[in-house]
Amino acid sequence: MNFSSKLLEDAVDAFASLPGVGRKSALRLVLYLLKQDKEKSAIFANALIKSRNEIKECKKCHNLSDDDICTICANPVRNQQMICVVESIRDVMAIEETGQFKGLYHVLGGVISPIDGVGPQDLNISTLFGRLKEMECKEVIMAVSPTIEGETTIYYISKNIGPEIEVSVIARGVSFGGELEYADEVTLGRSIVSRTPYNKVIQD
Hints:
Layout lengths: L5 H11 L6 H13 L2 H17 L1 E2 L6 E2 L16 E5 L2 H10 L5 E4 L17 H10 L4 E4 L5 H12 L6 E4 L15 H9 L2 E2 H6 L1
Helix pairs in contact: 1-2, 4-7
């Protein structure tokens, strides 16, 4: 792909570095922005810069937030006795879209995967245990992807949580090996509502 402008090429390279964006798609995006008013392009650029500089990680659940504590953790209407444990921030967004869960979240930042060198110490597991000690939580819902690594993570966390807290897993409306963020809202919502106690899953 030949460019008559080095600035244009640099802009295309920047967009093409994003996941899922090829050079042709990147070129279309750049050309689109160049056709817009400078004010609109400035708003777009400033939004990216501001989000990168000012968006924080919630000190409680590790979700994205404008402040030290995210709006979900700070919402007194949310059920404070229920925590839904997920792998990623995208999973929080997917579950929130269903409208079926009104408790709190905890983002692990991944799953335990010895083959990839990811252990419990590499995830936000210790902060989860810390939260459980500080609050009167009655149920931990493990909403991680149904994979071998996900099952390993569920087992590890469940074995380190006291018997006074019930550990449950989402119903398997989500196929084994699938990822939560790609499940449709109806299936994911039903999986949350129809969750099963983890000790019953092990026994079965």
